[in-house]
Amino acid sequence: MAQLTLQFKDLALKEFELTGQSITMGREPDNDIVVENLLVSGYHARIDPAGREYILTDLQSKNGTFVNGERVTSTKLKDGDQILVGKHTIVFTLSPEEIQEDQKLTEPTMFIEVAQGVSETEAQDPTPSGLDSTAISAERPAVLSFLSGGGDEYEIKKKLVKLGKGEEADVHIGGLFTPKVAATISRRPTGYHLTPTGRAKVKVNDAQVGSSHRLREFDTIEVGPVKLQFYYKG
Fold this sequence. Notes:
mainly beta; Tumour Suppressor Smad4; 2 domains; six-stranded antiparallel β-sheet; 22 strands; 42% strand
């Protein structure tokens, strides 16, 4: 089980286990990790589980969230990463079992002959039975098509795409109350995942989402006044 260690000036203050639920950190008392420092926003950042991965998202904090010295909006956490919020450091560590599992996933794939009784179509399609192949195919080029409030379409070519009205946004979303970065779409081994980054209302198929959400083909995404459709190209 992954773990977070809250530190101040190399002094470990408290440890937190990641149990499969999202964890928020900030100055307000209803956060999972309360950091009492004036440089820390009320709701500063959030960590969401996504399969075997953990995604850190800055919640439009005033002074920013940093990982290993670099300011981030949304990023995948790795074993040993140091998250800086205000003057406090939060160290992210994986369990030995999780580290071993990650190493297995990165080992080279062995090629074997197709067993008798397996059709050529099944041999060419390695998707496990019962799973949505479009949902787990992160190698297929994907597109965001504007249904209302924007341009024509945006092809997702980057591993992390930002949606919002700020200059750093890849997909511009207008609206008076739209944050500079309202949400991100990240490309992962399991597919494309939409993650809200602030308090903006983000919906998928008319249902509001508050944490990382795996996108399926033809999902409808609403961010502020803009409505988009996600689909695979070709």
